[in-house]
Each structure stands twice: as structure tokens, then as C-alpha cells.
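Risk register update: the risk of archive-format incompatibility is retired. Evidence:
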Amino acid sequence: MNAPHHPEPKDRPADRPARLTVGVVGAGRVGPALAAALQLAGHRPVAVSGISDASVRRAADLLPDVPVVQPAEVLKDAELVLLTVPDDALPGLVEGLAETGAVRPGQLLVHTSGRYGTGVLEPATRAGGLPLALHPVMTFTGTAVDVQRLAGCSFGVTAPEELRLAAEALVIEMGGEPEWIEESARPLYHAALALGANHLVTLVAQSMELLRSAGVESPDRMLGPLLGAALDNALRSGDAALTGPVARGDAGTVAAHVAELRAHAPQAVAGYLAMARATADRALAHGMLRPELAEDLLGVLADGGNA
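Archived output:
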């Protein structure tokens, strides 16, 4: 008689990282939050490094009772090390840790830079470290709210094929959703995120300033429903969500906008023109802007609204 067949569970123990001691090099806004999320999953933070008073306070708030030590000391007792420093500082940090012999064979080294894949960890890899790039697609405040925001947050994951399951399992344990990014695609991936998120903040801040200049008492309350709907429509429908005078080909309105900006907020003119040109190109390419209207509109944008 054949033994009963039991289907293998999707989340096999072999695919889950064991309970690990965790160290954080760089107590900026990201590292302590990720370490706190790993702690909730059963891992054990053992050391953190931070230089500024703000980073030491963040470490104390999110990782109480975890000692603050020098970067090389973090690696002594940690099986998983979060390298959460600014992008430009990451290559030098990795080289320094490798040169001083701080990296141990079999130690998991995780950086959270969107720009880099695992290539930047090559000096540590040569020393026996196991390289992972886990970039949370989220803005961080440096407070406990960040741990909650990781629920459902996408992570850009890059790792050697043999470490892919472990990398993705760590992301899932932090509450995130792993998204595989090839090493060669990391710079483009990061540029896309910066284009959307960073520039969105600038656009919203400029819009609020202009509304205040126009006498609106609560620009945030006015913009909230409009921008929320615009974002939702754009995520659902892409270019089909375009509305407004540029998409309609209303050259006269656009010229009036530019004239007002020149008079009251000249620092906003270049951004308005650049985004209007990009919007016009996309509306034209997707058949929303009629060619006969596009000619006048593009003429206005070409001479900066001085027609």
C-alpha cells in the first residue's frame, strides 16, 4: 500500500532564513526601521552604529537596549548586517569593512540602496560575505510608523540566484512584497522611482505655494481630493487619465498660466514648461491631443508663453 502523499507546503523551512542576529551600520531613517521589522519576525538585533545625535536617538527609539558601537564592531556579532548608509557612501564603506577583515565568511550583507545591485558589495563578497540588495520602495520618517508602512511595501530585490529565495523570504518577513530587479536594471529602476516620488513632492509643494499666493487658506485640503483622484486614475489608467488644458490643446490657457507664473512665481516657469511639453507629447502620442491643436500649443511652449 502506497504511503499517503502530502503536498509540499509553499513556505518550506529550507526557504526561510533561520533566526539571525542582526546588525545595522548607519542608523539613518531606514536601518533601524528594517531591524525593528526583522525583530518582530523573530530575529535579534544585537548592534547598531550611528554618528549624529539624531541617529543615536532613532536607534534608541526603534531598537531600545541595542548597543551603539563602531561599524566594524557591528559585524562582530551579527549574522545579518544592514548597510543603510547614503548611496555615495556605500562603496567606500564596503571596501573599508572588507579591507579591515570585518566581514566573515557566510555573513549576510544587505544594502538598501535603490541605485546599486550586488556588484557594489563585491569587496565583501570576495571576503566570503553573502550579498543582498533589498531596497524598500517607501519614504521613511525615522519613527515607529515606518515599521507599519512596510506592510505591503514593495522591495526591489537583487541577489545571486542561490540567495534569491532567502532574500525574498527576508522581505516577506518584514511585511514587504519582493520584486525581482536584474543587476543591470537597478539604475533605471531607481531613476523611475525618483522621477515619480521625489518630483511629485516638489510639484505638490509648488502647487501649495501658488495656491497660498492666490489667497487659498488651506491648499492642502483643496489639493487632497484632486491629487488623490489624479494619482488613483493615473495608476489605474496611465496616460488615459490625462486631463487639463495641455491635454485639451488649449493654448490660450497655457499661455495665460505661463504669464501668471512669470509675474508671481518665476522659479516655477521652467518646471511648468518642461512638464507641459512632456504632457503634450504623451497626449499627442496617445491620440488625446488633436494635431491641429497641438501645433499652437507646442508653439506657445516653445517660446515659453511669450507669444
